[in-house]
Amino acid sequence: MTEIKKILLGIDGSDGSYKAAGYAADLAARVGATVTLMFVVSDQYTDRFIAKPTYTPNEEIMVGSRFNRAKAIMEEKHVAYDTVVEMGNPAQKLIATGDSGYDMIVLGTRGLSAVKEFMLGSVSSKVVQHSRIPVLIVP
Ligand SMILES: Nc1ncnc2c1ncn2[C@@H]1O[C@H](COP(=O)(O)OP(=O)(O)OP(=O)(O)O)[C@@H](O)[C@H]1O
Ligand SMILES: [Mg+2]
Fold this sequence. Notes:
With 139 residues, the chain is α/β, with parallel strands linked by helices. It has helices at 15-31, 43-50, 57-76, 90-98, 122-130; strands at residues 6-10, 34-42, 81-88, 104-108, 135-138. The chain has 5 helices and 5 strands.
């Protein structure tokens, strides 16, 4: 039987990702799964604003605060969670991590981008198209 024990949740600090967090927490509480909150610091961002691939104290604060709301959501529903930060291409990192032993990836429809011309953001659409494990997109 299919079991959902490990859920990978993409958090970028957007309202869409926190909505996904709410759904992931409800699902995890119901089936007894754990949730990994993952934020990928994208290459693009690093190049543009930091100009070196290092993990600065400032960025750590930025990353930490991004997780705060999602952590609170997990705690409210008594869901066990951990956090992961990686640097690279967000879709690729989410797909590779998902493939390393997770049962499902949960993402929001949209993220931080101001451009809303497409139904799905580029990260969610790439993950849906290339993931080898099931992906749940929360509208
Ligand atoms: N850097 C990231 N790290 C972790 N999860 C992410 C990241 N970026 C996006 N996600 C996940 O993917 C969902 C959709 O975001 P996406 O980036 O695809 O849309 P967008 O920002 O509106 O558009 P785009 O980035 O393509 O301009 C988010 O709600 C979040 O769950
Ligand atoms: Mg985005």
